[in-house]
Write the structure tokens for this entry.
Amino acid sequence: MDRLLFSATFLFLFLFNFSLFSAVHSTTFKIVNRCRHTIWPGILTGANRPLFNPTGFVLKSGKSRTLRVPRFWSGRVWARTHCSTEPSTGKLSCATADCGSGRIECAGAGAIPPATLAEFTLNGDQGLDFYDVSLVDGYNLPVLIIAKGGTRGGCSSTGCLVDLNGACPRELSVVRGNGSREGIACKSACEAFGDPVYCCSEAYNTPDTCHPSPYSLFFKNACPRSYSYAYDDKTSTFTCAGADYIIIFCPLPYTSQKLLSARKDSAELPLVNKTMLYIGRHLRSLSSPG
Ligand SMILES: *[C@@H]1O[C@H](CO)[C@@H](O)[C@H](O)[C@H]1NC(C)=O
Ligand SMILES: *[C@@H]1O[C@H](CO)[C@@H](O)[C@H](O)[C@H]1NC(C)=O
């Protein structure tokens, strides 16, 4: 009798744990820092979605961290750079993509632009994960998303593999405050000029009236698969089911096809525009838009 009860309880606990496990932990993100410097990844969960912890952490050069992601999670991942702690107050602040929390954890705060964003919605329509890399809020680091082990969907890699900080048009460039003039981020035209034409706001808030600008084309030409302006969605959102994701900050511009390992690369546009790999500091200003 006792033994039977024990077995039944054991079986129940085993099944309960098993279902709990599969319901909560279906996907992992492996976040990799290939930059030559330390980064401080930040994670923001969308409204009414299961919380994801941590919301921020430190990742030294060459290191990676694998995180379990709640099944119906939606949100964004980015990386803060050039962070330091103010000795008198103990507050953390970062030169790019700060979340303003003053701490390593962002605790519900998003990236202050400019920031390259890796965006995800897991188990959405038809059970597919939707993901993209967005430069709509500007750019601070190259990012690559690789889907591994997907069972449905194109599972293409996406991202922005080119370092655009040196090539950023001068009017969009964010430079280090210490007089070195080193480009550390590149603003979107919306943020730099606040003009509804660039922001796709007010009268420009529809797919018919919101168009790419010479500035959004600068980002799109360099990183053909990334989102470059608000309605740039036909070629820039990717889907996959049942995958784990590798999010690499500062990937090598020539990442091997073997590593990318898409199930069936359905992307219309190349991941890297080879003509843009050599854009240098001498090519700094775009012709002024009319
Ligand atoms: C600015 O800071 C960076 C990183 O700390 C350093 O490498 C560079 O030499 C500094 N530049 C100047 C002009 O102080
Ligand atoms: C690559 O960049 C050039 C400009 O340098 C642009 O004309 C071309 O359309 C881009 N190609 C793609 C596939 O985006």
